[in-house]
Task: structure prediction
Amino acid sequence: MTVSFPPLTTVCSFAWVRWALAAALLLRVVPSAGQVLDTSFGVLDSRTLSQTLTPTLVMALGTDSAGRTLVGGKFDRLGRQVRGKLVCLLPSGAPDTTFGGGGIGPNGQVLAILPLPRGQWLIGGTFTRYDGRYASRVARLHANGTLDTTFRLGGTGLNDVVQALAVDGQGRLLVGGRFTRCNGVAVPSVVRLLPSGAPDAGFSPPLSNTTSVIEALAVDSADRVLVGGVSVTAAGNWQRLFVRLLPSGARDLSFVLPNSSSPYRITCLRALPGSKILVGGFLASNATPNINPGVRRFNADGSLDLTFVAPFTNAAVLSLLPLPSGQVLIGGYQLIWPGAVDDVRVRLLQPDGTINPTFAPPPIVNIAVALAPGPNGAVRVGGDLIAPPPKVGIIQFTSTGLLDSSFRAPIPEQYATVNAVARQSADRLLVRGNFSTVHGQAAEALVRLHADGSPDSTFQHNLGRPLYDSPYSAVAVDAADRVLVTNLPHVYRLLPDGQPDPTFDDGAGIANPGSGISLHDLRVQPDGRILVCGAFSQYDSITRANVARLLPNGAVDPSFVPPPVGNVTVTSISLLSDGSMLLRCEFNGIAYWVDAAGRPLPAVNNGRRLTGDVVALPDTSILVFTTRLVAGEPVLTAVKLRANGQRDPRFTLATGLEGKVVHVWPDGRLLFQEATRAGGELRRLTALGGIDSTFAPIAFGTGYFNEMAESYVFQSTGDLVIGGSFNSVDGALRPSLARLTNIPTGLTADAAATRPFDVFPNPAATTLTLRRATAAPATATLVDVLGRTLRQWPLTAAEQTVPLADVPAGTYVVRVVGSEGVSTRRVVVQP
Result:
């Protein structure tokens, strides 16, 4: 491409030179080989196992004044429309194709939906981005489904899941969930936001910020806030959380509940006319400890309304829909009473709590999670449900309970999760996941892709039995290009083309008499022997405690003596170059470092187990990660240990990290998956534990539960293939599998450890955080493309957040001048 510039005589020479210098600066600070999402790598269109057998949950519903229903949950598609777990349905049930403006929507689950005036919506959940823009688990949408960018929490936002939403009479928004921080400040799992999105400093609830989970919110006519959920006692027991707060956030002492020490959980609340309160969930009382009515009504002073008595004995109520008639629809499961035959999911209660006999419960299987009004008195219900002929995920029924056949909502679908990836010769990729189809073709849990991500039809696995998949399914490749897979209760070996290898037989496989079994991981040693771990007490009838080694022919290796792990499940194995290995028991936070024969190393912790997450390093040392609470907040620390038990004092983990190491480069650099406000960000650490600023952070999923990257493999080109349960990468639609290319080699480990600073988020909006390797005083300057100084901030801490208020959207350079010298980073500011 040829670029022509105007002659200097046609422009102001000074302005032109200044522009050219600024452009040169931008070109200089943007690495020519920075890692990027490889858009040439094939998009994996894989779908989960039968949607009619395992329907994807619909978690939230909301209806607007036009009769449209917003549907949120864990799905990725509704029919053929990709909307990232959020879809708007027309009154007919058909998707509103104008909703969303063609974006990919939220990158994580939508668990709460609140219709707002002027057709807007408030949504909450696990998501950290919407249409690729930063949105910290709560977002406001325009009526057309596009993100309202004027709604900003500012700062770092909420650090965990949003589960409940409400609005008061002044338009202030109540947000509750599992979060413990808002913009870095400790909060008690509930905050009030001003209409602008900024936290309301005048609202200060007296709840614990570490033991409360808010699942339900409601606001009464006096703007008092009803808060429901669970709290955790010092002994680790659950107990009810049900309080009423004054508009200031102070506890309303006039609201006194009946004495009850029985633990129970509140999942939904409704403020009724006359200040009465309807409560649903898993409910019990001291008076009737074995009776769980699922729904109760309380008076304005907190006392039980004895005129409302539901007949249920062990109900789980997840949603409430009060009707103008004073009746109430309830949804959940186990909505039965003594003498009842059917275990139904939706019931209509009369004003006194008794069953309305004229309502015929719709034939729903599994769980009704959410209820919303439909047109002409109809009701829409969503959840983990099936109804004929079949209807899956969301249905509509009439006021009498009859299924409405005119409502034709498409079936929700979910992209499959990639649980494991391994590399064969020619950079071909073996992908293990919970899929039944890939690119529309039948595929059972294991497929092979060409190096570019396209399907390889020459690989057809055939075990002679179904190949199951779970989050712990593993796949590995040996030196002969043969494929090893776990499939309870066995390990199988396939020839390179996928056919069974007749020379491999692991006998009876694993067993655990009287208890369950599982296979979590396998590793092929350089000599061809195979390490297998999970939950078992026998392998081929030979005693082995949750870890075993197999010979190349599949027989149990008698020379490997398992360490004394007892009944603890071994979840993964890491091999070190000296033949030793790390056995990780992540569920219990413990690990063992053992030699090649399985015996614990005597010099490491006196041969006893280690506490914390562990990582094997190329120099035959290990890292032990632990989390401790500092001022009520988790702080991640790490210690580097050698096989002789000595600590390496040179390793110092960068402060402020949350997450875990997921890969180690041959030079000791660490790929670190953060669980942060921006989601499941990947960043790189140096071999000494500092931030490697040559590797720009990149987001995979949300970092929450199963919405993250989970498996990693490098191709011979140095490109990194990443699999997991994410549906987007840095805002681009890339479900379950993606590749990063042009990964910078960076500096040597020691030199990279002293790189001056990193910035995040990038792109940024209202604030920017600078993280340096030192707290020495320095000055940061924001420069635009014309070389003009827009902002300047003195730096006095290793990590410092600076404001970007009123900085127009665009590309800028941050320059830091300090004792380390001068360093620059490019920053993109979004509106």
About this structure: The two ends are 31 Å apart (CA to CA). The CA atoms of residues 550 and 557 lie 5 Å apart.
